Amino acid sequence: MVISLxxxxxxxxxxxxxxxxxxxxxxxxxxIKTMEEFSGYPFHQEPGFKDSSSALSVDIESLQRQIDExxxxxxxxxxxxxxxxxxxxxxxARRYIKNLMGIAGLSVKEDAVxxxxxxxxxxxxxxxxxxxxxxxxxxxxxxxxxxxVGVLGAIEAINVLKRSGFKPKRSLEVIMFTSxxxxxxxxxxxxxxxxxxxxxxxxxxxxxxxxxxxxxSHASRFAGYAxxxxxxxxxxxxHYHAFIELHIEQGPILEEEGTSIGVVTAIAAPAxxxxxxxxNGGHAGAVLMPMRNDAxxxxxxxxxxxxxxxxxxxxxxxxxxxxxxxxxxxxxxxIPSKSHIxxxxxxxxxKRRNKVIExxxxxxxxxxxxxxxxxxxxxxxxxxxPALSEDSIIKATETAxxxxxxxxxxxxxxxxxxxxFMARISPMGMIFIPCYKGYSHKPEEFAAPxxxxxxxxxxxxxxxxxxxx
Length: 469
Fold this sequence. Notes:
Blueprint: H1 5-9, H2 30-39, H3 60-71, E1 81-83, H4 88-103, E2 107-110, E3 116-120, E4 129-135, E5 138-142, H5 148-164, E6 172-177, H6 190-195, H7 199-204, H8 216-222, E7 240-248, H9 253-257, E8 261-267, E9 269-278, E10 282-283, H10 295-312, E11 319-328, E12 334-335, E13 338-347, H11 350-371, E14 374-383, E15 387-388, H12 391-403, E16 408-413, H13 419-422, E17 428-433, H14 449-467
């Protein structure tokens, strides 16, 4: 077995204590100025503070510029970002990502739905690779960091390792996942679900249309994809040796506690439920209260029941949300004859979450009976299992945090991520970095360059450790 000198020397690079800031001055950066004015975020960079580590030097100025440039591919004006699957702006953004992968020396390929892969071949290419990445699609009027940090940051992590002289044993692969957001076709994590082998989804996409009645097939062909069977996207379990995703927290905990890194131990998966009630309706003044069969009140009562059952679970990790409540005919002087609600409930404990769903169902039946309305639909749209991070990836990330002198805490992710489905293919882990007030999915979304740099450095070191296993 031949071991390169750089491989032998590489671990020595990481025992030193690195400073937490790895960038040049930002006082004159127009993006920082814009975000300060728009969101009130006070960012102050110490003059002349530079990264002294030659081994893991993050070019944060270039990375921030890339984040800003990618944000310009948007259907709404700055500082908001709107980038919907297979739109013109999405196609341009994809070209931008492929170009950056090429500049980084990665071999680039795409699959039938547009998942993009950039590969750095390892010294033992027949071994299962280590993968990392995230998404770049953005819901309407959102921000420029969600997902993007995990894609552009992953490419920069590869650059960091190359600049350090590191030679991977296992290949390293950056993935840009297609459509993590459900904006266009109502399907979240579309690309990673398919990579995980969802035959049901592949079949469903044959007849799926968006709200403009454009089919998935037509839209994907417009973007240059779907020239082959979608099942060719599927990956076998064990295709990757490990997957790790860098992401903004999308919550306020790290910022509030002044902690640099969140090491994710589990991802809570949602179940989505649609419920429809039907009553008699009638004039708001003429129909007396004892004579009413009010579908609107049935929906309101079930909404409160969702809260009750979630709180009864006894765990802070159980959450439930009624995100949609629609009444028909929707007139102030008309008793609702129909109501429609959509419920999201999540937990890292699948059995506990499913027990809550069953209680919600029983409440819907009871409410229907007591109010004399018809429960015309109670449909579970999806009921994905939660995912646990792999212990070996958690330990590698924790070790890297200690070697880089980065404060960290273990935490769960209550938000959906592509990592949830990559866990079905390989061992999985996630790295969170702080974001301003936990804001996400809105223009005020912001991650400070120092936090992005810390996340990229940590990702690079963790990838290196995993590559050598």
